[in-house]
Amino acid sequence: MIGLGKKKPPPIRSLVGEGMTVKGTVYFTEGMRIDGRIEGDVIASGEGHSILVISEKARVIGKVMAAHVIINGEVEGPIVCSEMLELQPKARVTGDIRYDVLEMHPGALVDGELRSLKSADKPQLKLAASNDA
Predict the structure, then answer these.
(1) pTM value?
(2) Domains in the chain: how many in total?
């Protein structure tokens, strides 16, 4: 039973299979699963909710943009996630991440800046000067 306030995930209609390499920008609608390798950006296009699954065997070298992103493989590049980002235990991300909601499991590694999309409208935190002033 789907809980109140939960959206039904869109169907996964696109697949980059294991052993497959795609070079260039990939646009998708609704849902996509990557088990292979993409050398280029992966971008959810169109209106509405989207989901991208990057499996344990997958590698993406490029920008990733989607509403809901689940990563258990490798991403080298920036990630922009407008709804929820799930970093599974074997996730390896090299690049800056912008997210609305973040779920990070023990074992996941990020080499980059994690920044909430909600903080975009807020001023940066400034540290107080030292007593040497």
Answers:
(1) 0.83
(2) 1
